[in-house]
Design a protein that fits this description.
The chain contains nine helices and no strands. With about 190 residues, it is an all-alpha fold. α2 (about 30-40) crosses α3 and α6 (about 105-110) packs across α8. The longest helix has 26 residues, at about 145-170. The termini are far apart.
Length: about 190
């Protein structure tokens, strides 16, 4: 496996785990056990993968089961995880959720939303997915203005994440030494 292929698979794994964590965070008590049973894995195995220091990674078979659980093909799951558009012609199943399938107010906001140019496409896909989760757990279509506020807040959070990534990957500038007061007084 090349470095690029490895990074691609790692991004897909990270997406699957993050989305499962989000899904289960809002679920009722016992949701993780039910999901493990539905996916055909032990509760301990799923719990380990979702922990903050996992010793197990989601393999391709597991990721395929999760894709089926979400109602998408594995190709669509990869496209979503990588921030690419999932083309219905290139997949075996229809996309489970598109902006045009959303309720009218959310669809209108997604269609007209002015994204900040600094936000890359992969994070825009994450924001759209978070809006979908908000709809799923909120249960109803908010007003146009409320969806606008929700998307703006989600976009701000994504931009904050991007800024933190840049800040932590950039070298910290060194402080320059300033002349001491005694050096200034000697010149006078």
């Amino acid at each position: 496996m090349t470095q690029d292929e490895h990074q691609r698979v790692q991004r897909i794994k990270e997406y699957v785990l993050a989305r499962l964590r989000d899904e289960l965070a809002c679920g009722p008590r016992g949701a993780q056990a039910q999901l493990a049973k539905k996916l055909g894995v032990s509760g301990a195995h799923l719990s380990n993968m979702l922990s903050h220091s996992p010793t197990r990674q989601p393999g391709e078979d597991f990721r395929r089961k999760v894709a089926a659980h979400w109602g998408v093909s594995y190709g669509q799951l990869e496209a979503i995880a990588l921030g690419e558009e999932a083309s219905p012609a290139s997949t075996s199943k229809p996309v489970s959720w598109r902006a045009e399938d959303a309720p009218p107010n959310l669809s209108a906001v997604l269609a007209d939303y002015s994204w900040m140019p600094e936000l890359p496409n992969d994070l825009r896909a994450v924001v759209r997915e978070q809006a979908r989760q908000h709809l799923r757990f909120g249960g109803f279509d908010y007003s146009h203005d409320e969806w606008q506020r929700i998307l703006t807040g989600l976009e701000r959070e994504a931009l904050g994440l991007l800024a933190r990534r840049v800040r932590t990957s950039s070298p910290v500038p060194r402080e320059t030494k300033r002349p001491s007061k005694s050096a200034k007084t000697r010149k006078a």
